[in-house]
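FAQ: What does a ligand-bound record look like?

Like this one, built around MF3:
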Amino acid sequence: MIRSKSREEITRMREACAIAAQVLATLQPLVRPGITTQDLDEAGRDAMKRLGARSACYGYQHNARRYPAHTCISVNEEVVHGIPSFRRILREGDIVSLDIVVEYNGFIGDNAVTVPLAPITPDLERLLRVTREALDVGVRAAQVGHRIGDISHAIQAYVESHGCSVVRDMVGHGVGATMHEPPEIPNFGRRGTGEKIKPGFTLAIEPMVNLGGYRTKTLADGWTVVTADGSPSAHFEHTVLTTDAGPEILTLPPA
Ligand code: MF3
Ligand code: CO
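The answer part, i.e. the structure of the complex:
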């Protein structure tokens, strides 16, 4: 069962999500040739601190491992959960996914973008455009009265009709006082399936899209997910509030 957030909870979700968006907006212009993903992570940590928030990723436990950084930064064939490193120097032609999850006042905001280091190839341009638009399509499908599977189906249909594939090993999710709450929101699925959407759901919608096949594997570090065929991958994410007036993106970038 998915529980709708109370007014009070929605207020706090708005605050956490605004901070997550602010941190993401702070990092984006720093993505330049020559910077390391470790530098970006430190900038993310500092921005969160300045805004009175902290990383919800740092120390997050999965399969008995704690995530060791404040942000997830995934380059090229890395799909998600790339661990920032001083050894990873960004270069022209890279695509860089920044995934920022903050906790503020007991609530979580979760958002991600994939940033190109221009110039990138036309195929990569297409991958980024399709993934960004797949997120829009998914958000638009998050209508009260529809079902979770309608979001999944809309994303899959859009991505596959544009010649890319959707990752199946990771999914979007409900978000609130904890990072991962019901429901799971796969980026593939059938219309009319899953729970009915009610007002007051806060959902992290996050298409992960590959230029090649949909299969992934996890590296020996226990976190970094890469495409099985080595093809590039992109990721965009918003936290969205469902309302009777339609979906509202809580992680819109600051004006
Ligand atoms: N947005 C990612 C997710 O929803 C962030 C994971 S943080 C980590 O799974 F700690 F797991 F790395
Ligand atoms: Co997420």
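Follow-up question: can I read anything off the structure? Yes, for example: The two ends are 35 Å apart (CA to CA).
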